[in-house]
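Please, structure for the following, as tokens.
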Amino acid sequence: MRPLFRTACSLVSLVSAALLVVQPVTAKPAPAPTAEAGSADPWLYRGSDVPRDKEWTFGELPNGLRYAVRKNGVPPGQVSIRVRIDAGSLYENDNERGFAHLLEHMVFRQSRYLADGAAIPAFQRLGATFGSDTNAETSPVSTTFKLDLPNATAASLDESFKLVSGMMIAPTLSEANVRTDVPIVLAEKRERGGLAERLADATQQTLFAGQRMAVRPVIGTTETLEAANQASVRAFHARWYRPDNAVIIAVGDADPAQLAALIEKYFGEWKAVGKLTPAPSFGDPVATAGSSAGHVGETRVVVEPDVPRGLTYAVMRPWRKVDDTIVYNQGIMVDALAQAIINRRLEARARGGGSYLVAQVNQEKVSRSADATFVSVTPLGENWKTALDDVRAVIADAMAAAPTQEEIDREVAEMNVAFESSVEQRRLQPGSRLADDIVTALDIRETVASPETVLQIFNQSRPLFTPQAVLDHTRALFQGTVTRGVYVTPKAGEGDAASLKMALAAPVKADSKARLDSKPISFAELPPIGTPGKVVTSSPTSVLEIEQVELSNGTKVLLWPTTDEPGRVTVKVRWGAGYRAFQAGDAAYIALGDTALVGSGVGTLGQEELDRISTGRKMGFDFAIEDAAFQLSANTRNADLADQLYLFAAKLSMPRWDVNPVLRAKAAAKLQYESFATSPQGVMQRDLAFLQHGRDARFRTPTPQDIDAATPDGFRKVWEPVLREGPIEVQLFGDFNRADAIAALEKTFGALPRRAPLPQALLRSSFADLAPTAQPIVLEHRGDPGQAAAVINWPTAGGIAQITEGRQLEILSQLFSNRLLDAMREKLGASYSPYVANSWPQDLDKGGAIFALAQLQPKAVPVFFATADEIAAELIAAPPSADELSRVTEPLKQQLTRAYTSSAFFMNQLEGASDDPRKFAALRSLLPDMTQTTPAAMQALAAKYLKPGNSWRVAVIPAGQKLATDLPKGMTMPGAGR
């Protein structure tokens, strides 16, 4: 069934999907050719005794097309459509590598009801945003086309099914369109290629040696893609795009009978020509002749400068289709317990200062090619053999002796809270996720189940969760046909394939030192925060039912008890000055705090104790550093709310300063740093925020030398005052009891000492803008010589006083983005994913920007700059057309309309509103600000911010190359304007 812990296992995994105003369309009569809408044996459940999810209606048309439809109101008005073709890269012949993915692009190009390039505008006019609401993905085993249609009316649904049917049944696979789309796919291959592609290929080729997975990357090869032509692409389409090889899923705010009728109307006449070609054999993992003791087969050592060390080995077994039964799923649950116990022990060793930074075991069924148990290890230094031995020793101990019942009970409690939460929150399941669950079930040839069924099977399985059963399943997880491994290192000479094979085959002594004390810790044993405070004021905010409360120590709370999201409570704690609180030399401690502050503990609780005290509880501890504030956040539930508030308050009042989390964070930061230089994307990740904040040293990514110089004592000196500084705002919203929440707040945040306000000079401070540049700032990467990236940044402004203008700039940026995509990707094929974004800080009076970014070939960098300048000039010279503007404002309107159904959206908008009440008024104007404008207003904003000489730009090019200054020979500007 749909997986929880892994990408392809079974019913246990269903929970991850579960945790998450337009009237329904008028229904038409449901088709009934050979459908089994009410049958006790719908097609997805044949051969399974798992209770079917009766909210789904399954059907099958005479031409063999299968469908699944379902009523769902999350978000209201939306219908999610998926068309899954049972063919991915593993279905390709040798001369077709990359064709499944190429076809994914081509069906969007032109089809029966859509002219060349008309698909994206057509769906935008229906309110669907390109890339999020309209998309497609190709995997090794399938190609799936996705449409999340907002504001679904009878007319828009009919039009959408019509357009999608033409794309599937009759795409225009002409020679001209092949020649147009191949460069776009090659641009995508280039963007995702280089080091990442080499490492992925090396790993896939080694672990799946002898199988199609080893030689069928989804993106294909340059040679086969360049050789693609009208005849060969049409042949692939004819072979696999046929009704008896397709499934349509439609879920949303519409009558299932209406959805089924539309499927029959537009797909019922789809004809299959000839017999369906059987899927090719994907092969089995096989131990090669001469495999060493322990069945260790293929191994490889990959040397790539600048990458962190990493070792992966896999115990490979053949994949076989299973009968997705209750007994099978009970076995998967025991497998999950076994892995959770091992992973907790491995994490304990890493936290204690072991030879590796992180290690994990994970069982997956990969693309119907193997059932494998993967072990991944990140060594802390060159001595990878010691790290591997230490990890194998923990696994050997798990295979030698059964876990204690206490260890099992701990993991069972964790699973139980996840399953119970999914039942509580079942009506929050988005239709898009439910549709994707069916796609995943089809990919792995299993079924889906309701959250109630998952919990029921889990509870019925509890007697099976014995030490002996877990031991037996642990041993089975590490038995297979062959074991294979790959070690990636930045330094030559650390090992070779033979030494890795010997290390994997060598005997290992079981290490029981990683076994943990699993006895729970009670919150009743912890000291109080202080003397409880009292609520001194309570008043409505004039926004929905949100209430503002002030405690006697000055802490302010925004409260919103609502049953709109049953079983879910969100807590946010906001305080301090964010990045403004630090000094120029604090960059290393800022980076370390982002990962180590929570792990360094609370009061008497270290990281292990924090894990134990939250066992079987729904609690969290996320931390974020923002430009103008710090924030702790967690998703919890009413039963755990008081204790969640205690942990957050204790973090501010009685922080602990354990050394090991800081040392571990230092090791991680050093390992990551050099990898930034391996690609243009990495360089942007390293340097873009630094540039966008005017080269402010606080935003600089610290070097390994900076990290080496940082100490645990220094960490405490920087962070201890930060936790004490500035008033506190608590946000509390969701399914909770108000009286109980108030009592818990008084005992926790109300018991803190009164905190002094932040200095006015600090509150008024902001970050500088980078000065405009006539020539690009040139940065270098050490990755693939065919990769580059470019950015243009137009500074704007910020602040709540001008928030309407900031929101209108979102419309302008999306107009710009549509034009840039059309020019750079569709007309030139020079970049796969150019885009334009808008940022506008509400808590600072400057720092906003419109910025355009593209990943491309080095020779195309001047094309990007010239194209962006041309688009900016055209937006200044002439207003956009009404149609072009509506293609932006209608999707924005639909995005916001859907967002308004979530309490989290409103609370995100109101962060900091207890100190700045203008945010309440700003929330009321959000929808018109973002969706109502005029062509003249857009032209005026473009003239204000996109004028020549008002931008700075960056080019990231390969080391050793010079930045091109002229357009490539033969390349002319595309005429991007409208």
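Confidence is low (pLDDT under 50) at residues 1-38. The chain has five domains: 64-267, 296-429+436-505, 541-576+601-656+726-757, 582-599+659-723, 777-958.
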